[in-house]
Amino acid sequence: MGMLFQNKVIRTILFSVFFLQIGIWVRNYSILLYVIEKTNENPIAVSMISVAEFAPIFLFSFIGGTFADRWKPKKTMIWCDLLSAASIFVVLLTLLFGSWKIIFFATLVSSILSQFSQPSGMKLFKVHVPEEMVQMGMSMYQTLFALFMIIGPILGTYVFQQFGISMAIGIMGVAFILSAVILTLLPPDQEVEKKESKTSIFLEMKDGFSYVWSRQTLTLLGACFAIAGLALGLTQPLTVFLITEQLGLPKEQLQWLMAAFGAGMILGGGVTIGIASKVKPQVLLSLGMGASALGFLIMGLSTEFWLTLTAEFISGLFMPCIHIGINTLILKNTESNFIGRVNGILNPLFMGAMVITMSISGWLKETFSLVLLFEGAAFLFIVGILTMVPLMKKNKMMVNTELQKL
Fold first, then answer.
1. Minimal CA–CA distance to 106: which of 44, 154, 176, 47?
2. Which single residue of 32, 94, 259, 315 has CA 20 to 30 Å from 142?
3. Distance between CA 63 and CA 229 in Å, rounded?
4. Per-residue pLDDT at 41
C-alpha cells in the first residue's frame, strides 16, 4: 500500500477521481430531483436524464477512445474537466435567465466528455504504472467508485434539498475545476513520434477492431463482458419485485438491499487490494463471476429477507473482482497506443448488452417467473466463466513452460 501511494500517477488520478465523483453524483441526483419537481414526476422527462447519461456511451465511447489514442492523455483529461466545468456554468447562466430544460445539456455534455477522458486515464495507467502494481492500482480505483455508490446519492440529495439547483450546479463546476487542477500534477505527456504519413480517423477505428479481433484474450474478454452485461441488465430493473412479490415487503425495503450491495463493494474492493498482487486477473474475474452466479441463484430462490440481503452482500463483495479483473486484463494485453480504442470497443459491449436485457426484462417477467429470470442470470454468469477457461489453460501452459526452462 505504501508503494502504491508513492506512485505519483496513481495518487494524482485517485485524488482527481474523488472530486470528479463529487461533481458527477451531485449532478446526477440534483438534476434528477429538479426534473421530478419541475415536471410533477413526468416519467418521460425523468427517463430522458438516463438517455442523456447513457446514450453518449454508445455514440461516443469508440470515437472518444480513438481520439484518446491520438491525443496526449494528461492534456486530454484536463481539457475534458475544464470543458465540463464551462458547460456547467453556461447551464447555470441559462437557468437564471432562460428555460430550465437546458439542464439536460449539463448531463449530456459531461457524459460525452467522459468518453474521451476515461480511456486517457487508462492509458496513463499503462504508461506510468509498473505492471506489478496495475492490478492493485485498479483495485483502489474501483473501491473509490464503490464508496461513492453509497455516499453519492446521499450527497447529491442533501446538496439539492439544502441549497437548491443553482448552488448544486455551482458545486459541480467547482468539483470539475478542482479535478483539472489536480491533474496538472501528473508527469508531462510523452512526446509521440510523428508518423511520416498521417492515417485517417476511420482507418484508425478499423485498426482498433482488427486489433481486438486478432487477440484471443481481448476477444474472449469482450464475450465475457457482454455476457455479464446481459445478466446484470436482466435483473437490475426487477430487484424491487424481489422485495414486493418474493418477500411480500414494502418497496421501501429496497434501500437495504442497495446498501448491502454497496457495503459489499467497499469491503470487496479493500480485500481485492490485499490479494491483487497474488491472484491472476483471469482468476479474479472468474471468482467474481462465480460469486455473482451464486448470489443471483440465492436471490431467486430466497423467501427470507435476511437470506436475500446476504446474497446481495455477496454479489457486491465480489463485484470489484469483475471490474478489476477486466480492466487489468485490458491493460496487460493491450499496447499503449491501442488502449483507447480497445476500451472504446469493450465498454459499449457491456452497456449495450445490459440495455438490451433491461429493455425486455419487464416483458420477460410477464411471460416467465421471477425465479426463472434470476436463475437465468446465474446461468449467464456461469457461461461467462466458461469463456475464461481458454485463458486459464493458456496461463497454465506458460507457467509449465517456464518451470521446464528452470
1. 176
2. 32
3. 21
4. 65
Look up cell 440465492; give the residue.
298
Q: What's the pTM value of the predicted model, to 2 decimals?
A: 0.69
Sign, CA torsion 400/401/402/406: positive
Dist. CA 274–CA 49, nearest whole Å: 38
Cβ neighbors of 206 (< 8 A, separation 6 or more) are: none
**Residue 196 in this model has a pLDDT that exceeds 60:** no
The whole-angstrom separation of Cα 239 and Cα 199 is 48
- What is the DSSP track for 179-206? HHHHHTTSPPPPPPPPPSSPPPHHHHHH
Radius of gyration (Cα) for the chain, nearest Å? 22
Note the residue count of the chain.
Answer: 406
Amino acid at 398: M
Question: Euclidean distance between the first and final Cα of the chain, in Å?
Answer: 31
Q: Taking residues 18-27, what's their average pLDDT?
A: 88
Contact 334, 209 (CB under 8 A): no
Handedness of CA 123, 127, 132, 136 (dihedral sign): negative
Give the cell for residue 115: 468518453
Which residues, including other chains, have CB under 8 Å from residue 256's CB and lie 6 or more apart? 309
Reference 199, options 79, 62, 336, 66; nearest CA is 66
Question: Which amino acid, residue 147?
Answer: L
